Amino acid sequence: NDALFSSLTAIIARFPSHILPLTKDVCHSILEAFFRIALEENEDDESFSEITASIECLASLDTILSACTLDENNEDNKGRDILWQTLPILIPLFNLVFSNAGISDFEEG
Known about the structure:
single chain, mainly alpha
């Protein structure tokens, strides 16, 4: 999983204007994968590959959202409009990350 998201991040960084129209769908898919990985019950502590995959998911989100903000330099502001359309999809991520459990996971990491 982590190699897949690392490749996705590289593609987004290389071709941001081509990915921009797909931002909402790509973010939705990345978040589904993130939650599947992050909320998976494991008997052991989270494995290194699961942690790495979660980090790569967040890196992919960062890259695609950054592409939206970089597009704000265009006069038509498509990037800003796409970013505003995408933000509601991110609310569950914010809720998880800023929950007590999420904060304690980051403090441990």
